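Regression test case RT-17, inverse folding.

Input:
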């Protein structure tokens, strides 16, 4: 095989440094400098090499040469954000399962940015983890290609794709949205809204929610795309005027929405019902207590960890969810 020829996108063979150099039109030494000493490389050249690495799915090996064939006893974990407590239980479950076995857990954040996600996947894989766990599925074809070529256990979580890269431990986001819409319709609510981000998991919740609302003969529900924190929930309240039920893609955002509705003088649940997702402790303690879709994040984390260290059993694990109706609807 010509090691300087770019690999076919269809192959799972990892690309070589020489192939990156040929693709970028630079020498292999320049590629090596970009990997090891990027500050010494002119910005245009560095950007060209970085683009080539991304296009080919090249992941440099940052483990010392003498350790390159040794086990690193590490697992990489990629989450959208650590600022939202909704993922904390999953991280804890992963750590509790793996650390007693002698594994170190390395954490990175995508911040819901596909380009940043690819960079963080490359950064984690460059440290040669023995497995990688991520919330959701790869946002880009380049990211999926990197993970397939890594040839390590890869576990997607918080979703349930039909064809995961390797394994998945999660729940059906589309079904979660459908269950909430069905509950609102059965409760006599007619004017529904959905508040959340535009990431793939939130979008699937919206699609299930929208489908069931229309099937129930309700008006087309309103979708409001907003940031995913409590402050954004407060700001979004004004866009919910006239609605009598809102499904919010996560509890932190829902708690903010409740505050915004209260400042507007809208009574919950008399005027408008609100259901979140995640079952955060804060949602249980506020008044009125937040209705929510409970996701067992810790079990997702522990199950994902188990899938990285054992090939026994199913590789697609549906852990389900539970609708908890409390005081907000």
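Golden output:
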């Amino acid at each position: 095989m010509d090691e300087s020829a770019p690999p076919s996108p269809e192959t799972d063979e990892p690309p070589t440094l020489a192939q990156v150099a040929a693709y970028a039109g630079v020498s292999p030494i320049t590629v090596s400098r970009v990997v090891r000493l990027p500050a010494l490389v002119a910005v245009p050249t560095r950007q060209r090499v970085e683009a080539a690495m991304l296009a080919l799915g090249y992941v440099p090996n940052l483990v010392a040469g003498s350790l390159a064939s040794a086990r690193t006893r590490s697992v990489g974990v990629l989450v959208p954000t650590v600022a939202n407590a909704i993922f904390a239980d999953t991280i804890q479950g992963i750590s509790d399962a793996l650390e007693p076995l002698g594994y170190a857990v390395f954490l990175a954040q995508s911040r819901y940015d596909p380009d940043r996600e690819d960079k963080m996947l490359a950064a984690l894989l460059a440290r040669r983890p023995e497995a990688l766990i991520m919330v959701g599925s790869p946002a880009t074809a380049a990211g999926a290609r990197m993970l397939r070529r890594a040839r390590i256990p890869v576990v997607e979580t918080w979703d349930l794709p039909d064809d995961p890269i390797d394994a998945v431990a999660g729940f059906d986001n589309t079904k979660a949205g459908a269950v909430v819409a069905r509950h609102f319709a059965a409760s006599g609510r007619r004017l529904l809204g959905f508040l959340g981000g535009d990431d793939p998991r939130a979008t699937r919740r919206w699609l299930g929610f929208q489908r069931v609302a229309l099937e129930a003969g309700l008006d087309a529900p309103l979708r409001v795309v907003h940031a995913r924190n409590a402050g954004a929930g407060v700001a979004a309240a004004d866009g919910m005027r006239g609605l009598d039920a809102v499904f919010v893609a996560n509890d932190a955002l829902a708690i903010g929405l409740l505050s915004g509705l209260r400042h507007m003088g809208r009574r919950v649940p008399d005027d408008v019902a609100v259901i979140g997702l995640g079952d955060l402790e804060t949602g249980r303690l506020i008044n009125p207590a937040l209705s929510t879709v409970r996701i067992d994040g810790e079990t997702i984390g522990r199950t994902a960890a188990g899938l990285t260290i054992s090939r026994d059993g199913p590789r697609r694990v549906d852990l389900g969810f539970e609708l908890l109706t409390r005081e907000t609807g």
